[in-house]
């Protein structure tokens, strides 16, 4: 799949790091380092602009290493970039740890997965089909 991209950062384009990776790392494109305090959230620029085909989205997800080692995540995880969005890709990071975290230009801050999605047409009905689970949810199995 070809996707149009504008790169206004000084960093390489996002790429797959392994042959079967689903996500591509996004890098911070900032002029000054960011100190992210505990429980603080901030929008971090990437310098990237994309044009997705209709029927696709870009999902912005946390990097597992940052989450595990430093408690850095994404507030609205996964974030969704819609096919009609043309603005700069930015990542809404949050520091869930009890220590400050420093972000510098070029740091890998998130990953992006391109995914196909469907557009639904609602069919209003009076009843839904029966299943073994029924309305059970939120720990209903007791496990």
Automatic annotation (TrEMBL):
MF GO annotations: dUTP diphosphatase activity; magnesium ion binding
Sites binding substrate sit at 63-65, 76, 80-82
Give, as in the UniProt entry, the pathway in which the protein acts: Pyrimidine metabolism; dUMP biosynthesis; dUMP from dCTP (dUTP route): step 2/2
Q: Name the enzyme group at the top EC level.
A: hydrolase
Task: Enumerate the cofactors the protein uses.
Answer: Mg(2+)
Q: Where does the chain cross the membrane?
A: none
Q: Which residues form the dUTPase-like domain?
A: 11-142
Recorded superkingdom: Bacteria
- Record's function text: This enzyme is involved in nucleotide metabolism: it produces dUMP, the immediate precursor of thymidine nucleotides and it decreases the intracellular concentration of dUTP so that uracil cannot be incorporated into DNA.
> Which protein is depicted?
Deoxyuridine 5'-triphosphate nucleotidohydrolase
The organism encoding this protein is Pedobacter frigidisoli
Gene encoding the protein: dut
